[in-house]
Write a structure and sequence with these properties.
This protein has twelve helices and eight strands. By secondary structure, it is α/β, with parallel strands linked by helices.
Length: 294
């Protein structure tokens, strides 16, 4: 995992140890740009690293460019891409609203439904009372899929027939949750291409109707550069404040996680690390630092 990017960073350290200067950094990034690009790191993020290191190097000169110092600089640059992070229970604990409404957004196949179940499972383990809502009333099998997860993890699912209006259904689910003492509503929405404007507007309607407390974008680490497109479109409409990155257990290159944090400036909440319900890890920038510089 992250092998190529890890190699670039370790080569950076060995190349510039003992002779670091602005020119050395410029040259290194020019020569190795293709490696960054092949690891899915966008041009803007490459530029960010370059400028950040040039800036930091000014403070290093007097101490000499030891490899440990360079590693620290790189760690600082990587960490600087990410926002302060928090989990769903952290955010819920600050809210006075019950049920607390969370809407999951993302295109089909990213692992959205599985992630909703993973989150529900972790909340249940914390003795909280979640209700999952099957608001994807379009895709054949979507309702059954969530219902199946629900029965496996012992969390109730609110659902209606295919074709039901997702916004009205979610509002009904909210009232049902309120009447029955559920604490957190987890709404699984239909996966939609970020290019489909009318479907995105419908999603915005749902968010409005339920007065969502938290919109979470679910992105697939394997999506590569397309993650930027997906995330920035959902960020505009209906908007989100946190992300979850799935499938980081697969052989990922790393760039998509850096790009997501860089372009959205929103914290990543969790990482999906497998297909089991336990495979959801609260995100920490140090997780990326360890994999890139470890
Ligand atoms: P949705 O269409 O976005 O709701 O996606 P699903 O939840 O149906 O997931 C699509 C596929 O991705 C399923 O086979 C899931 O088991 C798989 N999946 C979801 N999250 C992860 C993850 O973190 N790691 C791996 N390896 N597979 C995942």
């Amino acid at each position: 995992m992250f092998d190529r990017l890890k190699k670039v960073f370790s080569d950076f350290i060995s190349t510039v140890t003992g002779k670091i200067s602005e020119k050395d950094i410029e040259e290194f990034f020019k020569e190795r740009e293709i490696d960054f690009i092949e690891a899915d790191v966008s041009i803007d993020v490459i530029e960010y690293f370059k400028q950040k290191l040039i800036e930091e190097v000014k403070n290093v000169k007097s101490n000499g460019a030891k490899s440990e110092t360079l590693k620290e600089l790189l760690a600082k640059a990587i960490t600087g891409i990410f926002q302060e992070t928090e989990t769903l229970p952290d955010i819920y604990s600050r809210s006075s609203r019950k049920p607390f409404v969370t809407v999951f957004l993302g295109i089909n196949g990213t692992g959205k439904t599985t992630t909703v179940a993973k989150v529900a499972y972790s909340l249940k383990k914390m003795k909280l009372k979640p209700l999952m809502v099957a608001a994807d009333t379009y895709r054949t099998g979507a309702i059954e899929q969530l219902t199946e997860h629900g029965s496996r993890i012992g969390v109730e699912v609110y659902s209606k027939k295919y074709g039901a209006d997702p916004a009205a259904l979610s509002r009904e689910a909210y009232e049902y949750a309120q009447a029955n003492g559920y604490e957190i509503l987890l709404i699984d929405t239909a996966g939609r291409m970020q290019t489909n404007e009318s479907l995105l507007n419908e999603l915005a309607k749902l968010v409005n109707v339920v007065k969502s407390d938290l919109n979470v974008f679910v992105g697939d680490a394997l999506a590569g550069y397309d993650m930027i497109n997906q995330a920035t479109t959902f960020l505009q409409n209906p908007g989100f404040s946190h992300s979850i990155v799935t499938k980081v257990d697969a052989e990922v290159k790393g760039g998509s996680i850096l790009n997501l944090a860089f372009y959205t400036k929103k914290p990543i909440m969790y990482l999906g690390t497998g297909q089991n319900y336990e495979d959801l890890t609260p995100f920490k920038p140090s997780w990326v630092v360890e994999r890139l510089l470890g």
